[in-house]
Queue: 3 jobs
Job 1
Amino acid sequence: MRTVIDTGTYGEYLHYGLPLALVSVLGPDGRVNVSTNASITPLPGSLSRLAAGVLIDNYTNELIAKRGEFVVNLLTPDMRGIARQCGSLSGVDTDKLAVCGLTTTPAQHVASPLIEQCPVNIECRVDTVQHLDELNLWITRILAVHVRKDWTNGRGGVNLAMYKPLLYAFGHTFELGPMVGHSGI
Ligand SMILES: Cc1cc2nc3c(=O)[nH]c(=O)nc-3n(C[C@H](O)[C@H](O)[C@H](O)COP(=O)(O)O)c2cc1C
């Protein structure tokens, strides 16, 4: 027997354990906006891609449409307060970087900056967009993945002992548990 669960009015309980990230975009006025996003997934293939679902009414969506690029900055469990603030305030009338005490550093390929407090930053340029009801699915090329020095393993990869993303599942937040397998799954 199985039961169909309630996914919430806006599908808020659809997320089954995805990393929470801040999407950073440079605005035309030179201000950087950040917003919390749980609807981001990398896409496999010979070209590295990433898809991000952004609600059309959000300022972030307007900025991505203008700029054609953004940066995905992974959050960590100690950044839950930042996730809450950047996921409820609008960048139209709030400088969320100032409110949250976040700082930026330049990206390599895009004008939108990396958020320094986030240990992983992914530079994305928009390839195409799919309009779906009240959401835009931005499909991008990944131009670079930056990892903070203490999260790297010295061999061009991530130090998995340090890897602690903030996960979002069924409306709640979690830490990643222990590794249970290696490359052979
Ligand atoms: C846990 C969490 C997950 C969220 N996930 C998304 C998401 O996947 N896509 C989205 O567009 N907004 C998402 N939001 C909502 C935006 O972060 C929120 O509407 C924000 O205020 C938008 O800011 P902006 O208007 O400056 O872009 C999420 C918020 C929270 C708290």
Job 2
Amino acid sequence: MIMYLKAPISAWKKRKEKSNEKFFVFLFTLMGWLFLLSGDPSEATLYNNTLFKQTYPGKDAKYYTCILCHTGKIGKKGELNPYGKSLDLVLPEKLTVEKLKAVESLDPDGDGVPSGKEIEAGTLPGDPASVPK
Ligand SMILES: [Ca+2]
């Protein structure tokens, strides 16, 4: 009797294992697609930093850091300083040279100096403590 039951149980277990494998393959594929569709924030920040550098070349390498637009040293999407927020208002989508230029006349950090003048002087347009001398 036991021998008659072992075969179907073993087949059922194998089928269940294969079913679990398929489920995990499906789950990881779905997670991969969701990750690709949502976009990697650090990749976006790297793109934004490169575009900023190309738009405003000639500064010291230390100037082109995440802190230009973010509150933290490591730029995260939700942690924007006033300058980053001003760009975000203009660009719910991808950053472009036109969008960077569009906020040059704004003073998002409220230090009395427009962002364009701050960038020209090498100060931080999102930090009120950083102003041209
Ligand atoms: Ca400033």
Job 3
Amino acid sequence: MAHDGTAPKGFWTETAQLVRAVSRAMGVTFRNLWRRPVTVMYPDVRRVYPDRFRGILALTYDTETGEENCIGCRLCELICPPQVIKVEMLKAKERNWAKTFTLELYACEFCELCVQVCPTDAIIMLKTFELATADRRTMLLDKDRLHALGLEHTPSWATGNKLRDMQAPPKAARADGAKEPAAKGDAKETGA
Ligand code: SF4
Ligand code: SF4
């Protein structure tokens, strides 16, 4: 009897179990040996990413005037869930500017909310994710770096204005005199 009270397995039983297990494992190995790999030799080989792929963030310039699009309104800062954007507005006569703009990309959730609220399409996402680094400090992006990234990489299709245009239009106003459906609580209070 074994210590745990069970009868010891015979030598041949254990050997048969071992052979079965090894055969199963080798079967899986051989089946996969002839399969096409699902990985690619990045960065020598690059996948084609979907049209709607959206990666790292950047700031944009107006293509006609060459001016920065950001007006320093801080909407992106206020909507950002992990609060990784900081903007200082510089008020001027003609228009406002971002005096400073920083984005802590290492803590960004890539939720795209900042892009969605931007009234001037100044902040966008790019069709790239290639900003890998071993030094977290390089992921603290200032205004110059964000503008440079915008010039370096292809922008994604989405801008704040395009995304807002895709949203369902507001419901038509109710005609005058039309009754609101009674809420549950109202029915009880009125004894209906
Ligand atoms: S993508 Fe989301 S988390 Fe990242 S900076 Fe924009 S709002 Fe913040
Ligand atoms: S990036 Fe857009 S939302 Fe953010 S401060 Fe500039 S203009 Fe405002």
